[in-house]
Predict the structure.
Amino acid sequence: MKSTLIALPLVLATASFAAAQGNPAATKFMENWDLNSDGVVTVEEATEMRNNVFYSFDSDENGVIDDEEHVMFDEARANDIAEMPKGPGRALIQMIADGMSKEANDANGDGTVTGPEFEAGAANWLATVDKNGDGVVTIADFAM
Ligand SMILES: [Ca+2]
Ligand SMILES: [Ca+2]
Ligand SMILES: [Ca+2]
């Protein structure tokens, strides 16, 4: 059983709902994806984290996430969404999770997702979270 904390480490059981930003999902996203803790998630950091996610779900390590492996990956993301209280936090997790779906990353439409396909999706995925369009994700992008 793969840990969902590896897939989407932003949703932890210890999430503080008293977070100053008022959105626990945003706080957790920054804590886990801002690898060097400078308050900014760059495309490089997003790429590295997505690689970690990819390899944690490529169970047989053949460089491809196939349908069987996607079952577990989809389940892990669904669990993370279900754990969030309804509201902006859940909507945010949904958006982030959708960006890691097979549909979003199977660039050549052959039904599986390769490491390079998943990695190439990082920039577009980050752009969907980057609401103010400055090319990086900061806590400011989560103001709602
Ligand atoms: Ca950073
Ligand atoms: Ca595989
Ligand atoms: Ca931004």
Observations:
- The pocket of calcium ion (ligand 2) is lined by residues 58, 60, 62, 64-66, 69 (CB under 6 Å).
- The first strand starts at residue 64 and ends at 65.
- Confidence is low (pLDDT under 50) at residues 3-7, 9-20.
- DSSP finds eight helices and two strands in the chain.
